[in-house]
């Protein structure tokens, strides 16, 4: 069970970097990606061996960057359920609809995957203090895993980010600052402070290993389907790291020969109030222009200038995928429909991804017999302020009304 990590390579100019030193972005300003000796992985392990390992994301150790098992920082992350959604699927006209429910992870979102691997690797490289900008869930996850690892964490998030994530950070002992601004403002503040105080900057894609953790979403869902790809994967996209991770998982599995050459069509769902990738994809552009005045209740999607936009757009083009914008009203309606039809309370971001399925079936882009996997990136329980319900309040002697 040894990592087959060989180094880091720039996602744009292919320049190589030593992975056993602390690295940030490439000199050209683009994200670095981990590279593995896949031939060595192929001779060391196979899907049957992996199936016999514990049900957490460390079962893919050869394809992860953490070299020593002793450096793993774990809260029990991984192997989230892949659930059929037969009633909601029937309503949308896509009976083969499935959801991978990342709300079941520690800290209630898939950000736990990136934090588990990123914090483990930071500890392995000797980092003692880290800092990151966040829209909330990454802050909660990194603060929690940093506490577990005994590292110091500083988190900066917009004052509008989901309030529960503030408590997660503070209770985990992180230094939390709220900024009257958006995540890009938080990112600039973290960068200035990291330079001034020598902190490690753990911002999305500036730090090369978070995406490796998110990659396990893709590895898991393929394993859960019996090492077979679905027709379509729909991902609620903010910074796009999860989608880049899933595309990387597919590429590595294909090179390993553990899946055949067919790729699923990858679909980006974004909020109508912040849809830079949807706009760029529709225009056939290679990169996304920053979105002016971003706003959405699906706060994880509130990323106006995603650093990984180029890679996301390339993944959409390479897989005959597409990108869809969803209004907040439609995302919340899908959230409510899923809870009622299936008993699963997805996050607003997950609601946006579900509504993208409805839209794509309505336009005919999805076929009735497509097998479609939607990523629900977090639990709806982390967003109590968007759940508008109004049950009757009774006195103890009141009689319950007869059923309608
Ligand atoms: C961060 C986040 C997203 C967006 O993730 P990216 O991989 O950065 O695009 C989506 N949903 C939730 C709940 C999030 O926390
Ligand atoms: Zn480069």
Describe the structure.
The structure is a single chain. The protein has 404 residues and is an alpha/beta fold. Helix content is 36%, strand content 15%. It contains 13 helices and 13 strands. The chain has helices at 38-44, 47-51, 86-92, 111-124, 137-149, 164-171, 183-197, 210-224, 241-256, 276-282, 309-318, 328-342, 348-362, and strands at 5-10, 16-17, 32-36, 82-84, 97-101, 129-133, 152-158, 175-179, 200-201, 232-236, 265-271, 322-326, 372-376. The strands form three sheets. The protein has a six-stranded mixed beta sheet with strand order 4-5-13-10-11-12, sandwiched between helices. Strands 8-7-6-9 form a four-stranded parallel beta sheet, sandwiched between helices. A three-stranded antiparallel beta sheet has the order 2-1-3, with no helix packed on it. The radius of gyration is 21 Å and the shape is globular. The site of pyridoxal-5'-phosphate has 16 residues, from helix 9.
């Amino acid at each position: 069970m040894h990592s087959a990590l060989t180094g880091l390579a720039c996602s744009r100019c292919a320049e190589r970097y030593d992975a056993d030193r602390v690295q940030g972005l490439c000199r050209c300003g683009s994200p670095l990606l981990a590279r593995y000796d896949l031939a060595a992985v192929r001779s060391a392990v196979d899907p049957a061996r992996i199936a016999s390992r514990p049900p957490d994301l460390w079962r893919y150790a050869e394809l992860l960057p953490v070299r020593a098992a002793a450096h793993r920082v774990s809260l029990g992350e991984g192997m989230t359920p892949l659930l059929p959604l037969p009633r909601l699927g029937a309503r949308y006209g896509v009976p083969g609809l499935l959801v991978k429910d990342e709300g079941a992870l520690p800290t209630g979102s898939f950000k736990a995957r990136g934090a588990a691997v990123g914090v483990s690797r930071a500890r392995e490289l000797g980092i003692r203090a880290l800092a990151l900008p966040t829209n909330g869930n990454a802050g909660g996850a990194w603060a929690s895993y940093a506490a577990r690892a005994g590292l110091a964490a500083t988190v900066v998030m917009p004052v509008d980010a989901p309030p529960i994530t503030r408590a997660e950070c503070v209770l985990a002992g992180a230094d939390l600052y709220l900024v009257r601004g958006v995540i890009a403002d938080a990112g600039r503040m973290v960068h200035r402070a990291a330079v001034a105080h020598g902190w490690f900057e753990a911002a999305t894609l500036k730090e090369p290993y978070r995406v490796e953790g998110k990659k396990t979403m893709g590895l898991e869902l393929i394993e859960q389907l019996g090492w077979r790809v679905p027709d379509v994967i729909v991902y609620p996209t903010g910074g796009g790291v999860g989608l880049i991770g899933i595309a990387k998982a597919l590429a590595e599995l294909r090179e390993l020969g553990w899946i055949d050459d067919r790729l699923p069509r990858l679909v980006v769902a974004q909020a109508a109030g912040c849809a830079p990738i949807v706009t760029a994809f529709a225009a056939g552009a290679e990169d996304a222009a920053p979105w002016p005045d971003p706003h959405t209740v699906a706060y994880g999607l509130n990323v106006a200038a995603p650093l990984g936009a180029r890679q996301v757009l390339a993944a959409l083009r390479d897989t005959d995928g597409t990108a869809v914008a969803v209004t907040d009203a439609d995302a919340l309606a899908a959230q409510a429909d899923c809870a009622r039809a299936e008993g699963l309370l997805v996050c607003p971001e997950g609601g946006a991804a579900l509504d993208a399925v409805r839209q794509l079936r309505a336009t005919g882009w999805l076929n009735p017999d497509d097998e479609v996997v939607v990523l629900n990136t977090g639990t709806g329980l982390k967003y109590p302020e968007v759940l508008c319900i109004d049950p009757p309040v009774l006195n103890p002697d009141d009689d319950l009304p007869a059923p309608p």
